[in-house]
Amino acid sequence: MWEPWGCFMGKLTAIAVRSAKAGRYHDGNGLMLLVKPSGSRSWQLRVQADGKRRDFGLGSATTVTLAEAREKAEQVRKLYKSGVDPVAKRKAERLAQAEIPTFRQAAEAAHKELVWGWRNAKHRADWISSLRAYAFPHIGDVRIDLVDAPMVRDLLFPIWLSKAETARRVRQRVRAVIDWAIAKGFRPSLDLSGVGKGLPKQPKTDNHFRAMPYERVPAFVESARDKKETMGRSALQFAILTAARSGEVRGATWKEINLKNREWTIPAERMKPGQEHVVPLSESAIRLLKWASQFGSDGDNPVFPGKDDAPLSDMTLTKVLRDAREPFDVHGFRSSFKVWAVECTHYPDAVSEVALSHLDDNKVRAAYRRTDFRKLRTQMMEDWATYIEKGANIGGADSEVEPV
User: Fold this and answer.
1) Which domains occur in the chain, in start order?
2) DSSP summary character for residue 245
3) What phi and psi, each to the nearest 5 degrees, are found at residue 236?
4) pLDDT tens digit string along 320-330?
5) What pLDDT, in 10s, does the model give residues 43-84?
């Protein structure tokens, strides 16, 4: 068979490629069609530069057309003559592509790295659990570099109106995963600013927790005590008596409790403001702790354990309210306490603010304050417990509390 080297450009035709028998056929400029006796046919390119000759496979002739083979050949020639090894380059590209994680893998990895900057334990857990629940079913198995704005919009749509706040948080967390992937070099930048425009307008809310009027708290607590004592009911009562956040109560361990000093010391890493907080314990709160201690009171054990001695879930306390047909939020009892302190007592506002572990927005005032009002807060929490027990404004309008 006559096989002149490089004498003809574009010698082959599509018909000739399909009908070629076993042998080697030159298209010109190094491009060849190789046909084996078995009938399989493939493209090969022979390139010579700086006295060196290399052969490159360009794929099967059954999947790569003559036109595509010529285009590939031209690209390889340019790369090789410019000093780039096309084979090594392709291997590097394939390796890089294989190492690009899916959205699920990227989210898990991002969470492990970012979590160290978050003080709130509940936020650390909620961050990844919300993505597992609402993002992974839609884009979890999609390679992170292939995730686009329409995909993000579509995963948000089912919960955009029914779970508005959750949807907003999921959008923020998806954006954080993508930003992490960009920083790691796994994908180019992605503009998600227009995602909201493709979703219906969410109804406006004041974002306030639904709080039970403080006048109703005594009757509610009394009704809870009339029922069988459970961890959920006890934990909710303890949260009400201490005006603490739900997560602080559910995460409380016995090593934080000092029954002798009647104090509960919550470490900084478990507090939303990131500062250690000491809660004076009323007699009613102590009574709840003594009941809970029968289930174990060692060191790291939860004060109010759930299944398998794990901390109670956030829904356990909410269920107590739902079972009682009360349309309020657990967090709202902090507001109940605050309104009681303002309307029924003469305690300075700063005292109830410290009791709620709120940071003073006035940085100068906060810098000069050198007290946590421990004595006043001890009396205030006892008065709050007495009010809940008896529905009486002990320590209220007629009490002699000096302003600070």
Assistant:
1) 14-98 (3.30.160.390), 103-198 (1.10.150.130), 214-390 (1.10.443.10)
2) -
3) -65, -45
4) 999 989 998 89
5) 988 887 666 778 888 888 888 898 898 988 888 888 777 766
